[in-house]
Amino acid sequence: MKINIIIPARYHSSRFKGKPIVKILGREMILRVADICKKVLPIKDLYIATDNKKISSVVNKAGYKSIMTSKKCLTGTDRVAEAAIKIKSKFIINVQGDEPTINSKDIKKVIKTKMKYPNHIICGYNKIQKFEDPNNTNIPKVVLNEKKELIYISRSIIPGSKKINKDLSFFKQVCIYAFSIDELKKFYKRKRKSSLEKIEDIEILRFFDLNKKIKMVKLNSNSVAVDQVEDVKKVELILKKLQK
Predict the structure, then answer these.
(1) pTM, two decimal places
(2) Which of 16, 21, 88, 187 is the most exposed place for a label (fewest CB within 10 A)?
(3) pLDDT digits (tens, 9 = 90+) for 143-168
(4) Kind and range of the H or E element at 151?
């Protein structure tokens, strides 16, 4: 079955303009993510979906393929869907362009899970690390049922407890998704954000209104997303440790 990886890359991020092409240890972040993805699939099956010619130019010069998308895409998943419609593929793996510390093995794990559960949206998650603050609204927290299906995802701390529980663990979303092309088309055709999606500013919530189950996969990336300028130094420290 045909599988492609699409990395969405928007230039005008509300929190960090030009984020995809910020240099991390001398290499643009979008290229670092693409370098990880090419360990999973051949370059011919890898695309960067962007609305910006600067990003497209950086990507193409590095030997990767880009697909130009509308500047009016509501979310990264809408951008991936718009790009996916232009290529013939059965399944699309959406790897966020702002997580340059993800592990290629985790992308493979998401693909394997999608093959096992083709009628589920697949999304990664991991434990919030000691150096991360669960109160940080830039980190979407997830709550799962016993089948490892997503019950809810929020920028607030969830789950909550009446009692003070120092042993309570929190889990975060890791933005590696797997979709079928039909799932992406349904998402894209709504042409509007759902009510909860607007409130939380978390796009995967739109699938709740499409009655799609979301299977969560425990990953081991210890990935840190670059949401703001300060996160670049955190990521560089992690990469230096990995290089050692």
Answers:
(1) 0.91
(2) 88
(3) 999 999 999 999 999 998 888 777 78
(4) strand 150-154
